[in-house]
Protein backbone atom coordinates (compact mmCIF):
# COMPACT_ATOMS: atom_id res chain seq x y z
CA UNK A 1 0.00 0.00 0.00
CA UNK A 2 2.68 2.46 1.07
CA UNK A 3 4.67 1.72 -2.08
CA UNK A 4 1.62 2.26 -4.32
CA UNK A 5 0.73 5.59 -2.81
CA UNK A 6 4.24 6.99 -2.94
CA UNK A 7 4.43 5.89 -6.59
CA UNK A 8 1.22 7.73 -7.35
CA UNK A 9 2.45 10.84 -5.53
CA UNK A 10 5.58 10.73 -7.65
CA UNK A 11 3.49 10.42 -10.83
CA UNK A 12 1.37 13.35 -9.68
CA UNK A 13 4.49 15.46 -9.15
CA UNK A 14 5.88 14.57 -12.57
CA UNK A 15 2.56 15.49 -14.18
CA UNK A 16 2.59 18.85 -12.39
CA UNK A 17 6.11 19.59 -13.66
CA UNK A 18 5.14 18.71 -17.23
CA UNK A 19 2.09 20.96 -17.29
CA UNK A 20 3.85 23.99 -15.83
CA UNK A 21 6.62 23.58 -18.41
CA UNK A 22 3.93 23.64 -21.11
CA UNK A 23 3.02 27.23 -20.26
CA UNK A 24 6.41 28.84 -20.66
CA UNK A 25 6.32 31.73 -23.11
CA UNK A 26 10.12 32.01 -23.29
CA UNK A 27 10.26 28.43 -24.50
CA UNK A 28 7.34 28.45 -26.93
CA UNK A 29 7.06 31.99 -28.36
CA UNK A 30 9.01 34.92 -29.76
CA UNK A 31 7.84 38.50 -29.57
CA UNK A 32 8.31 39.43 -33.23
CA UNK A 33 7.39 43.09 -33.55
CA UNK A 34 6.44 46.19 -31.59
CA UNK A 35 9.83 47.43 -30.40
CA UNK A 36 9.45 46.47 -26.73
CA UNK A 37 5.65 46.73 -26.61
CA UNK A 38 5.36 42.93 -26.34
CA UNK A 39 6.73 41.54 -23.07
CA UNK A 40 7.24 38.14 -21.48
CA UNK A 41 6.91 38.43 -17.69
CA UNK A 42 6.70 36.38 -14.46
CA UNK A 43 9.37 33.81 -15.43
CA UNK A 44 7.65 33.11 -18.72
CA UNK A 45 4.15 32.61 -17.32
CA UNK A 46 2.64 35.82 -18.66
CA UNK A 47 2.87 37.64 -21.97
CA UNK A 48 1.50 41.11 -22.63
CA UNK A 49 1.05 43.00 -25.89
CA UNK A 50 0.46 46.71 -26.06
CA UNK A 51 -0.60 49.30 -28.57
CA UNK A 52 -0.06 53.04 -28.64
CA UNK A 53 -0.32 55.67 -31.33
CA UNK A 54 2.99 54.74 -32.95
CA UNK A 55 2.75 50.94 -32.96
CA UNK A 56 1.06 47.73 -31.93
CA UNK A 57 2.92 44.51 -31.17
CA UNK A 58 2.83 40.80 -31.81
CA UNK A 59 4.28 37.37 -31.13
CA UNK A 60 4.47 33.99 -32.82
CA UNK A 61 5.10 30.42 -31.81
CA UNK A 62 8.53 28.92 -32.35
CA UNK A 63 6.98 25.65 -33.48
CA UNK A 64 4.77 24.84 -36.42
CA UNK A 65 1.88 22.46 -35.89
CA UNK A 66 -0.07 20.15 -38.16
CA UNK A 67 -3.24 19.39 -36.15
CA UNK A 68 -3.64 19.88 -32.46
CA UNK A 69 -5.67 21.04 -29.54
CA UNK A 70 -4.39 24.45 -28.66
CA UNK A 71 -5.53 26.44 -25.64
CA UNK A 72 -4.60 29.97 -24.63
CA UNK A 73 -6.00 32.19 -21.91
CA UNK A 74 -6.51 35.83 -22.90
CA UNK A 75 -7.56 38.89 -20.98
CA UNK A 76 -8.50 41.62 -23.42
CA UNK A 77 -7.89 45.37 -23.43
CA UNK A 78 -10.17 46.81 -20.70
CA UNK A 79 -12.10 50.07 -20.60
CA UNK A 80 -12.43 52.01 -23.82
CA UNK A 81 -10.89 49.58 -26.31
CA UNK A 82 -12.78 50.96 -29.32
CA UNK A 83 -10.77 50.69 -32.55
CA UNK A 84 -8.38 48.05 -31.19
CA UNK A 85 -8.19 44.52 -32.56
CA UNK A 86 -6.57 41.60 -30.76
CA UNK A 87 -5.96 38.85 -33.29
CA UNK A 88 -5.11 35.33 -32.14
CA UNK A 89 -4.80 32.77 -34.92
CA UNK A 90 -3.05 29.88 -36.60
CA UNK A 91 -1.62 30.42 -40.06
CA UNK A 92 0.56 28.70 -42.62
CA UNK A 93 2.67 30.55 -45.20
CA UNK A 94 2.54 31.20 -48.94
CA UNK A 95 -0.10 32.40 -51.39
CA UNK A 96 -2.42 29.43 -50.79
CA UNK A 97 -2.19 29.57 -47.04
CA UNK A 98 -4.55 28.11 -44.43
CA UNK A 99 -5.66 30.09 -41.42
CA UNK A 100 -7.90 29.66 -38.38
CA UNK A 101 -8.81 32.98 -36.76
CA UNK A 102 -10.05 34.45 -33.54
CA UNK A 103 -10.19 38.26 -33.64
CA UNK A 104 -11.47 40.37 -30.77
CA UNK A 105 -12.89 43.73 -31.81
CA UNK A 106 -12.81 46.27 -28.98
CA UNK A 107 -15.54 48.68 -27.97
CA UNK A 108 -16.45 51.64 -25.78
CA UNK A 109 -16.50 50.91 -22.03
CA UNK A 110 -19.47 48.72 -21.20
CA UNK A 111 -20.30 47.92 -24.83
CA UNK A 112 -19.69 44.37 -26.01
CA UNK A 113 -16.59 43.12 -27.76
CA UNK A 114 -17.19 41.16 -30.95
CA UNK A 115 -15.46 37.82 -31.31
CA UNK A 116 -14.87 37.44 -35.04
CA UNK A 117 -13.93 34.01 -36.44
CA UNK A 118 -12.85 32.87 -39.88
CA UNK A 119 -11.37 29.84 -41.63
CA UNK A 120 -9.11 30.17 -44.67
CA UNK A 121 -8.28 27.16 -46.80
CA UNK A 122 -5.83 27.40 -49.69
CA UNK A 123 -5.76 31.20 -49.52
CA UNK A 124 -9.52 31.70 -49.47
CA UNK A 125 -11.47 32.86 -46.43
CA UNK A 126 -14.83 34.68 -46.55
CA UNK A 127 -16.23 32.35 -43.90
CA UNK A 128 -16.88 34.83 -41.10
CA UNK A 129 -18.97 34.16 -38.05
CA UNK A 130 -19.19 36.73 -35.25
CA UNK A 131 -20.31 36.44 -31.67
CA UNK A 132 -20.90 38.40 -28.52
CA UNK A 133 -19.57 36.72 -25.38
CA UNK A 134 -21.63 35.72 -22.33
CA UNK A 135 -19.10 37.38 -19.98
CA UNK A 136 -16.87 40.45 -19.89
CA UNK A 137 -13.64 39.27 -21.60
CA UNK A 138 -11.66 42.16 -20.06
CA UNK A 139 -12.44 41.38 -16.40
CA UNK A 140 -10.48 38.13 -16.24
CA UNK A 141 -8.64 35.50 -18.27
CA UNK A 142 -10.75 33.11 -20.36
CA UNK A 143 -9.66 30.11 -22.40
CA UNK A 144 -9.89 30.26 -26.19
CA UNK A 145 -9.27 26.91 -27.88
CA UNK A 146 -8.81 25.55 -31.34
CA UNK A 147 -9.27 21.84 -31.89
CA UNK A 148 -7.92 21.03 -35.33
CA UNK A 149 -7.93 17.45 -36.56
CA UNK A 150 -8.33 15.92 -40.03
CA UNK A 151 -12.14 15.82 -39.73
CA UNK A 152 -13.01 19.19 -38.20
CA UNK A 153 -12.02 22.48 -36.64
CA UNK A 154 -13.79 23.42 -33.42
CA UNK A 155 -13.50 26.88 -31.87
CA UNK A 156 -14.28 26.90 -28.13
CA UNK A 157 -14.50 29.48 -25.37
CA UNK A 158 -14.03 28.20 -21.81
CA UNK A 159 -14.75 24.71 -23.11
CA UNK A 160 -17.99 25.73 -24.83
CA UNK A 161 -17.87 25.16 -28.60
CA UNK A 162 -18.93 28.23 -30.56
CA UNK A 163 -18.19 27.09 -34.10
CA UNK A 164 -17.47 23.90 -36.00
CA UNK A 165 -15.95 23.80 -39.51
CA UNK A 166 -16.18 20.29 -40.87
CA UNK A 167 -14.01 18.62 -43.44
CA UNK A 168 -16.31 18.57 -46.48
CA UNK A 169 -13.67 17.86 -49.11
CA UNK A 170 -16.04 15.16 -50.39
CA UNK A 171 -18.31 18.07 -51.48
CA UNK A 172 -15.48 20.07 -52.96
CA UNK A 173 -14.89 22.38 -49.97
CA UNK A 174 -11.18 22.80 -49.21
CA UNK A 175 -10.02 21.91 -45.70
CA UNK A 176 -6.71 22.81 -44.03
CA UNK A 177 -4.91 19.53 -43.61
CA UNK A 178 -1.47 19.55 -45.20
CA UNK A 179 0.19 22.88 -44.40
CA UNK A 180 1.72 23.28 -40.94
CA UNK A 181 0.68 26.41 -39.07
CA UNK A 182 2.25 28.67 -36.51
CA UNK A 183 0.35 30.42 -33.72
CA UNK A 184 0.30 34.21 -34.06
CA UNK A 185 -1.13 37.04 -32.05
CA UNK A 186 -1.11 40.78 -32.46
CA UNK A 187 -2.69 43.88 -30.99
CA UNK A 188 -3.20 46.64 -33.53
CA UNK A 189 -5.31 49.61 -34.47
CA UNK A 190 -8.16 49.07 -36.92
CA UNK A 191 -10.44 51.98 -36.15
CA UNK A 192 -11.29 52.29 -39.82
CA UNK A 193 -13.57 49.20 -39.48
CA UNK A 194 -13.45 47.45 -36.11
CA UNK A 195 -15.94 49.20 -33.86
CA UNK A 196 -19.48 49.72 -35.15
CA UNK A 197 -18.07 49.33 -38.61
CA UNK A 198 -15.52 52.15 -38.14
CA UNK A 199 -17.88 54.75 -36.65
CA UNK A 200 -16.12 54.75 -33.26
CA UNK A 201 -12.44 55.74 -33.35
CA UNK A 202 -9.60 54.86 -31.00
CA UNK A 203 -9.22 57.27 -28.08
CA UNK A 204 -5.44 57.62 -27.96
CA UNK A 205 -5.62 59.49 -24.65
CA UNK A 206 -6.34 56.02 -23.13
CA UNK A 207 -3.18 54.44 -24.63
CA UNK A 208 -1.24 52.28 -24.08
CA UNK A 209 -3.80 49.52 -24.57
CA UNK A 210 -2.75 46.13 -23.18
CA UNK A 211 -3.90 42.52 -23.69
CA UNK A 212 -2.53 39.62 -21.61
CA UNK A 213 -1.90 35.92 -22.25
CA UNK A 214 -1.22 32.96 -19.98
CA UNK A 215 -1.53 29.16 -19.65
CA UNK A 216 -0.71 28.23 -23.22
CA UNK A 217 -1.15 24.52 -23.75
CA UNK A 218 -0.72 22.57 -26.99
CA UNK A 219 -1.45 18.91 -27.43
CA UNK A 220 -0.35 18.88 -31.01
CA UNK A 221 1.65 17.37 -33.81
CA UNK A 222 4.83 19.40 -34.14
CA UNK A 223 6.22 19.88 -37.63
CA UNK A 224 9.94 19.75 -38.29
CA UNK A 225 12.16 18.80 -41.21
CA UNK A 226 9.20 18.00 -43.43
CA UNK A 227 7.61 15.57 -41.00
CA UNK A 228 5.23 15.70 -38.12
CA UNK A 229 5.68 14.26 -34.66
CA UNK A 230 2.68 13.80 -32.43
CA UNK A 231 4.24 11.50 -29.89
CA UNK A 232 6.55 13.36 -27.64
CA UNK A 233 4.90 16.49 -26.39
CA UNK A 234 3.38 16.44 -22.96
CA UNK A 235 -0.29 15.93 -22.04
CA UNK A 236 -0.84 13.97 -25.19
CA UNK A 237 -3.90 12.32 -23.73
CA UNK A 238 -3.51 9.02 -25.51
CA UNK A 239 -6.59 6.92 -25.95
CA UNK A 240 -6.55 3.15 -25.74
CA UNK A 241 -5.68 2.93 -29.44
CA UNK A 242 -2.45 4.79 -28.76
CA UNK A 243 -3.45 7.80 -30.86
CA UNK A 244 -4.12 11.10 -29.16
CA UNK A 245 -7.83 11.40 -28.36
CA UNK A 246 -8.08 14.89 -29.85
CA UNK A 247 -7.07 13.51 -33.27
CA UNK A 248 -10.53 12.01 -33.71
CA UNK A 249 -12.47 14.12 -31.22
CA UNK A 250 -15.93 15.28 -32.22
CA UNK A 251 -18.77 17.07 -30.48
CA UNK A 252 -20.76 14.85 -28.14
CA UNK A 253 -24.49 15.46 -27.59
CA UNK A 254 -23.94 17.89 -24.71
CA UNK A 255 -21.39 19.90 -26.70
CA UNK A 256 -23.73 20.03 -29.68
CA UNK A 257 -26.43 21.46 -27.43
CA UNK A 258 -24.05 24.08 -26.08
CA UNK A 259 -22.96 25.00 -29.61
CA UNK A 260 -26.63 25.50 -30.53
CA UNK A 261 -27.15 27.62 -27.41
CA UNK A 262 -24.25 29.92 -28.39
CA UNK A 263 -25.33 30.13 -32.00
CA UNK A 264 -28.93 30.93 -31.04
CA UNK A 265 -28.14 33.50 -28.34
CA UNK A 266 -24.75 35.02 -29.13
CA UNK A 267 -24.06 34.72 -32.84
CA UNK A 268 -24.48 38.13 -34.47
CA UNK A 269 -23.18 37.38 -37.97
CA UNK A 270 -23.06 34.23 -40.06
CA UNK A 271 -21.81 34.31 -43.65
CA UNK A 272 -24.08 31.35 -44.34
CA UNK A 273 -27.12 33.57 -43.68
CA UNK A 274 -25.93 36.66 -45.55
CA UNK A 275 -27.88 36.26 -48.77
CA UNK A 276 -26.97 39.74 -50.07
CA UNK A 277 -23.37 38.63 -50.10
CA UNK A 278 -24.02 35.43 -52.01
CA UNK A 279 -26.69 36.30 -54.59
CA UNK A 280 -25.68 33.27 -56.70
CA UNK A 281 -26.19 30.90 -53.76
CA UNK A 282 -24.38 30.05 -50.56
CA UNK A 283 -21.04 28.22 -50.46
CA UNK A 284 -21.56 24.42 -50.35
CA UNK A 285 -20.54 24.06 -46.68
CA UNK A 286 -23.52 26.24 -45.70
CA UNK A 287 -26.05 23.57 -46.63
CA UNK A 288 -24.57 21.00 -44.23
CA UNK A 289 -25.88 21.15 -40.67
C1 LIG B 1 -20.06 47.84 -29.76
O1 LIG B 1 -21.26 48.28 -29.18
C2 LIG B 1 -22.28 48.55 -30.12
C3 LIG B 1 -23.46 49.14 -29.34
O2 LIG B 1 -23.89 48.24 -28.35
C4 LIG B 1 -22.65 47.27 -30.86
O3 LIG B 1 -23.59 47.56 -31.86
C5 LIG B 1 -21.38 46.66 -31.49
O4 LIG B 1 -21.69 45.40 -32.05
C6 LIG B 1 -20.33 46.49 -30.43
N1 LIG B 1 -19.08 45.88 -30.87
C7 LIG B 1 -18.28 46.36 -31.84
C8 LIG B 1 -16.99 45.68 -32.01
O5 LIG B 1 -18.59 47.27 -32.59
Task: Please provide a written account of the structure.
By secondary structure, this protein is mainly beta. The chain has a single domain, classed as Jelly Rolls, CATH 2.60.120. Helix content is 13%, strand content 37%. The chain has 3 helices and 16 strands. The chain is globular. The N and C termini lie far apart (53 Å). The N terminus is likely disordered.
Strand order of the largest sheet: 1-4-13-6-7-8-9-16
CATH architecture: Sandwich
Low-confidence spans? 1-5, 9-21, 232-237
The distinct ligands, each listed once, are: 2-acetamido-2-deoxy-beta-D-glucopyranose
CATH topology: Jelly Rolls
Estimated share of beta-strand residues: 35-45%
CATH class: Mainly Beta
Mean pLDDT: 91
The whole-angstrom Rg is 20 Å
Provide the structure class: mainly beta
Task: Kindly report how far apart the N and C termini lie.
Answer: 53 Å
* Largest sheet, strands/sense/barrel: 8 strands, antiparallel
User: How many domains, in number, for the residues?
Assistant: 1
The geometry reads as globular
- How are helices and strands ordered from N to C? HHEEEEEEEEEEEEEEEHE
Helix content: 10-25%
Count of DSSP E strands?
16
Features:
mainly beta; binds 2-acetamido-2-deoxy-beta-D-glucopyranose; Jelly Rolls
Amino acid sequence: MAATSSASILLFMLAAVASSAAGNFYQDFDVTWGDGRGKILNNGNLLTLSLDKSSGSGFQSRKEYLFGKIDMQLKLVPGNSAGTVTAYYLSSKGSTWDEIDFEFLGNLSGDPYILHTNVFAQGKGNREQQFYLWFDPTADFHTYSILWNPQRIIFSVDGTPIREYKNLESRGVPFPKSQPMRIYSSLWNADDWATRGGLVKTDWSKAPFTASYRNFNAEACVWSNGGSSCGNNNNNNKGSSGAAAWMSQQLDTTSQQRLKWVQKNYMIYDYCKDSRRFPQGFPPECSVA
